[in-house]
Amino acid sequence: MERFMEFLSKSVNCFTAVLNLKEMLENAGFVCLPAYEPWRVESGGKYYMTYGDSAIFAFVLPEDLQAVRDPMFRMISAHTDYPCFRIKPCPEMRTNGYRKLNAEVYGGPIFSTWLDRPLSLAGRVTLTGEDPFRLRVEYVDLKKPVLVIPNLAIHMNRGVNAGVELNPQVDMLPVGGLVSGLEQENEDLVLAALCEAVGCKADEILDFDLFTYVTEKPELVGFKEEFLSSPRLDDLVMAHTAVSALTESSPVSGINVFLGFDHEEIGSRTSTGAGSQTVMFAMEKMAMALGLERSAFLDKISRSFLISADVAHAIHPAHPERHDPVLKTQLGGGPAIKMAAKQSYVTQSSDYSVYEAVCKKAGVPVQKFTNKSDAAGGSTLGPVVVANMPCRVMDMGVPILSMHSSREMMAVADYDYTKRSFITYYSL
User: Fold this and answer.
1) What is the pLDDT of residue 378?
2) What one-character-per-residue DSSP string does 202-221 give?
3) For the chain, which ranges sit under pLDDT 50?
């Protein structure tokens, strides 16, 4: 749990999440393969590829690949992004003595949970270079509180506890300083911070991708420390358990694969998202490296299996009426299979029963989650991936509370249950 908490602290956005997953893989002996060159692989090899800085794909081959008859792909997918606020270009706004940053909503955060918290910025900076198609890119994390989104005092908003609608363009712009009138205050706050972090001049910066994050660290909570309260559990708990299982298991009758996508929180239809052809690009490069013709590859994909891993809703202690009256997913009750008749979660009993059997073999409790019949609910990676890669698939996840809050909560036991189930799945 300590390693996972450290991973959460360091993985403050999609870019740093991929960097830290990459570090986990390299520490376990995985070799980086170039996205735009032919691959060479061998039996027992462990490999990974990054794409667009925010997606990562990894796979492990059996020790004696030739001895394995018709090996299928055993895949787990997760996503690297989370709901937050993205800083707009030319962001600084000076009004009423304050220096604020213009920002827009990324995904579906619970706005109120971002108020009055110390915030920082992290992301990617693109710098000038000789070749416009190969510009220098630097990752940046300011690693200190530089922003806050202040609440309006109750004395000026007496109805606040009855519920207030927050306007993202009015109420959710973070404050980063005061207007003092001094000459040096003409300096752009964001550019100055980026120049210091990267070690460059302002005119070298072409543009940036910057996202807010809360600086508070993950904490074990409860009299018996049964809970983990942390930012970004959705979906880093699934990414970390999957990659940990990939590095700690050895394939026997299949090829173990991890698929880490970006942009799930905004629909997945980007070059690094699950709704693109990038997943087939990565899988086909693997197939060509294995010497498979396209027809053989398609045959193998159609028989392969994907666990789409994205967090699930645990029953809320104060609002059980918001949940299905029968399937009440509990914290600490093990991973949850997610089901929906409208296929927002892929729901075929012949496929989700595979994961049930895996959990039984691993000695792990497993639960089932459905939305109330009068509630729309959310969606996840499974239906998006299978629209581009025709394989068997099921959706599951660790149950959490406060999904899309700036801090979410899960049971410590569910991390271990889920990781054990993934290790068993990869070891069959």
Assistant:
1) 79
2) GGGEEEEEEEEEE-PPPEEE
3) none
Q: Are 149 and 119 in contact (CB under 8 A)?
A: yes
What are the structure tokens assigned to 327, written together?
A: 């399937």
Q: What's the CA gap between 178 and 245, in Å, rounded?
A: 48
Give the global pTM: 0.95
**N-term to C-term CA, the chain:** 25
For residue 146, the SS3 value is coil
Longest dimension (CA), the chain: 75
Separation between Cα atoms, residue 247 and residue 236, nearest integer Å: 16
Distance CA 290, CA 295 (A): 13
Count of beta carbons in the 10 Å neighbourhood of residue 162: 6
Report how far residue 420's alpha carbon sits from residue 426's, in angstroms, rounded to the nearest whole number.
10
Contact 279, 96 (CB under 8 A): no
3-class secondary-structure state, position 381: helix
Residue 340 and residue 347 in contact, taking contact as beta carbons nearer than 8 Å: yes
At residue 89's C-alpha, the angle toward residues 84 and 94, to 5°, is: 90
CB 128 within 8 A of CB 206: yes
Per-residue confidence (pLDDT) for residue 64, from 0 to 100:
82
d(CA 225, CA 221): 5
Number of CB atoms found within 10 A of residue 118's CB: 12
pLDDT at 302: 92
Pairing of strands 336-338, 392-397: antiparallel
- How big is the CA angle at 141 (ends 380 and 99), to the nearest 5 degrees? 100
- What pLDDT score does 375 carry? 84
Amino acid 276 reads S
CA nearest 91: which of 181, 214, 212, 204? 212
Report pLDDT for 392. Answer: 93
